[in-house]
Amino acid sequence: MSGMSATQAAGLALEGVSAGYGAGIVLEDVDLAIPPGTLVGVIGPNGSGKSTLLKSILGLAPLTTGTVLLDGRPVSEQRDRLAYVPQREAVDWSFPVSAEQVVMMGRYPRVGWLRIPGSSDAAAVRDALERVAMADLGSSQIGALSGGQQQRVFLARALVQEASVLLLDEPMTGVDQTTEQLIIGLLKELRDGGTTILHATHDLESAAEISDQLCFVNRRVVAYGPPAETFTPSILHATFGGELLIVQAGDHSHVHGGGHHGPSAQ
Predict the structure, then answer these.
(1) What CA–CA distances, in Å, run from 73 to 6, 56, 62, 112, 154?
(2) Which of 82, 116, 138, 242 is buried most, with the most CB atoms less than 10 Å from its CB?
(3) pLDDT tens-digit profile of 210-251?
């Protein structure tokens, strides 16, 4: 965009961001500039500040210092341009709503909480459920779905927001392989369409494979850059210390950065 100053550059920028809860600082002095249409894997051990990084962008984690800008303006003034898929463990799945109703919640910032969604909103919900291969389960109660299906519904809720920035916290944890491949395909498609995406993950090899940039976090940003430059033994050691776990899976080995892995939900 012509005429933009450095601080008004297109994309997402974190400038001197520190964040925490109460007296504890979880994340310190983060500077990141992420152009539109970039898929970023956020990697770090448990308690390193991965989730806090996403929540500081969303305004869910209080900033102690710094600012978060989107296209040069404070993100706090344009929250409707952000979509968030939380960790599945953080959601109360007993809430009596259907998959369709959960996805429609993603339209509320656009529709307004007091207006009744119209036919274009209903069409957007149907389209999003179709894109995550859940069109035939729209009327199902969210609690009755498998882990992979629940994650697809939350992804559909993010899709209907038509956001510029998509933030996903451990989107692949506890999902079946079909869902994982579907999520990866959608993330690439959205990235190619200009969406900026940050996904926090424990699966380092998968993150290195699908991400344009990797952001290694351990209270600070240890490294940020293309996988070819950052997915190195020295950076992995600086981020995880002795917490790296090599899991043998058939003929393949997967590198996981600490943390819990639930069984795959079919």
Answers:
(1) 12, 15, 18, 22, 27
(2) 82
(3) 999 999 999 999 999 999 999 999 999 999 986 665 543 444
**Rounded percentage of the chain residues whose pLDDT exceeds 90:** 72
Which H or E run contains 237?
Answer: helix 233-240
Residue 200: inside a domain: yes
Decide: residue 117, CB within 10 A, 0-12 exposed, 13-18 middle, 19+ buried: middle
Q: How many domains does the chain have?
A: 1
The encoded tokens of residue 93 equal 């799945």
Strands 63-70 and 12-21: what pairing?
antiparallel
Domain-located, residue 122: yes
Find the largest Cα–Cα distance for the chain. 55
CA angle 37, 38, 39 (to 5 degrees): 125
47-86 pLDDT per residue, tens: 899 999 999 999 999 999 999 999 999 999 999 999 999 9
Q: How far apart are CA 153 and CA 128, in angstroms?
A: 9
Domain CATH for 151? 3.40.50.300
Tell which residue, 204, 216, 200, 184, has the closest CA to residue 246: 204
Q: Where are the beta strands (DSSP E) in 22-133?
A: 24-34, 39-43, 63-70, 73-74, 82-85
Domain-located, residue 228? yes
